[in-house]
TrEMBL record:
Name of the protein described by the UniProt record: Phosphatase PAP2 family protein
Coiled coil start-end: none
Domain Phosphatidic acid phosphatase type 2/haloperoxidase: 64-167
Main location: membrane
Region (Disordered) residue spans: 172-199
Compartments (UniProt record): Cell membrane
SUPFAM superfamilies (alphabetical): Acid phosphatase/Vanadium-dependent haloperoxidase
Pfam families in alphabetical order: PAP2
Length: 199
């Protein structure tokens, strides 16, 4: 009898094959490589946060705190990888599109930093468009064939959780007000929507 783990693993490998087929298009493959490269070691998100801090003095503390939380999410994902030690996927007859910094797959550090950036920077500057880019970075890791879908989902969840926990702590009065206020307002809106729908 097929176990739940076996069933899920088979579905994940099937999803990887389907997404990997998209890389047959050179434009898709090039985009996946570029997005993966930008997300390596959270580079694009750290640069976004520091640029925001420099260009937006009114929200400087929020940008810097958000950047620190993105870095924290990335480091947390690396720590979990050392504990779980899940091997990266290998799809028969298909080589990964990109090289990886390590052998372990769960959770995706790209997804962790992307999820953290979407929540943190989205709270500091709503409408900036970080979330769509973060989603593309996450998908790029699947198209590149270096992560299972569950790696990406877990990484994004870890990143979002890191920001929400960090936003509640506060380093000092006035630090990161943009992040904390935005995250709290987002949470309150979610509660109101749930009450309105009654489910």
């Amino acid at each position: 009898m097929e176990t739940l783990h076996t069933w899920l693993h088979a579905r994940e490998r099937r999803a990887l094959r389907v997404l990997g087929d998209c890389a047959a298009d050179r434009r898709v493959a090039a985009s996946a490589r570029a997005l993966s490269w930008c997300g390596e070691h959270a580079a694009v998100w750290l640069a976004t946060g520091l640029t925001g801090a420099a260009a937006d003095p009114a929200r400087r503390e929020g940008w810097l705190r958000g950047t620190a939380l993105v870095a924290a999410a990335h480091l947390a994902s690396m720590g979990v990888k050392r504990v779980v030690r899940r091997p990266r996927p290998r799809v028969e007859g298909r080589a990964p599109l990109v090289r990886t910094a390590g052998r372990h797959s769960f959770p995706s550090s790209h997804a962790a930093s992307a999820g953290a950036a979407a929540v943190a920077f989205g709270a500091v500057r709503p409408g900036l468009g970080v979330a769509p880019l973060a989603a593309l970075v996450c998908v790029s890791r699947l198209v590149a064939g270096v992560h299972y879908p569950s790696d990406v989902v877990a990484g994004a969840a870890l990143g979002a959780l890191t920001v929400r926990l960090g936003a509640r702590q506060g380093v000092r009065p006035g630090a990161g007000q943009g992040v904390r206020r935005g995250v709290r307002q987002s949470g309150r809106r979610g509660v109101r929507r749930e009450r309105g729908h009654g489910c």
